[in-house]
Amino acid sequence: TYPGRVEEVKIGATRSEGGSRGRTYVIGGETNPPYYIFEKPPPHRPIISMDVFEYDLLKAKKIGLPKAVRMHVKDVIHDPGEWAKRNVDKFKADMVVVHLLSMDPLMEDREPKEALKTVEEVLQAVDVPVVVGGCGDPVKDAEAFKLASDMFSGERLIMSSVTLDMADKGILDETAKAIAQHGHIALAFTPIDLNMARELNRKLYGHVPRDSIIMDLTSAALGYGTEYSYTIMERARLAALMGDKELQHPIMACSANTWAAREAWMKEAEMGEIWGPRELRGPIYEAVCAIVYLLAGADWLMVEHPAVTRTLRDLIDALMKKGASKPEDIADWVSKKLG
Description:
alpha/beta; two-stranded antiparallel ribbon; 14% strand
């Protein structure tokens, strides 16, 4: 037994709960290390989200969508609502993340109110919980999260992400208050540093309930630091179970970051024949990262390629069924012979 327990976070709200979602999820609640199935099965199934980006940025090539991903959504890429429906109905994503990159001052510098129309469109198109993804600029993101919190009050959306940069600019407190006041969830992002994760969580505790915080500890791509990310997630979970209250929050891992690695998307001619076609290599690259983070204890995986979503769902199905195992059935594994 372990003295600590990860907080449970409920995502989304039905009509009877003040929202409009047809489905909701609960993540967290762990009381033992990830998939220690000989002790206890996971209390909740990990969830998978898939992305929607703004079409005008894709059309202008201000952001890139890998060909291996684009080929699966090219006929709906111009319509955020249809893209979101494809992610949910065909690819079986549990949630949809809407990335509002057009707000970025280095891109379109669009006003948050204008960008949030895409979120509204997606909410009307699908009945799953939705994540409001910012552009990375702390000022624009804070403004968007406050506005979105009010516009979609009661929906229990996830605001991605609140950061220490917001605290440095003196805008974290009012952003956190707005998120909490309207019943939403804060995704707390820090760059592979547990002390920074603790610091950000402490700053949020004054305004956001503990059951409305999820941690993003940063997910590096395969070959570009996956082992660092795995270690930090593993340390966070073990610390939480040992009683560190500042780390007792569910973890989000973004395997979609894998597509930033050139090995995932470069052409075979550029990489060399031994690497194989990128249409296969890219999804495998992302799947490896996703599985690594799943086994590190991720409660929510942000995925880009539909084949990765399918692979993860199959793996999660298998892992969740293993909880019926009894320790005595596998106690003699060391002495077993193969073949």
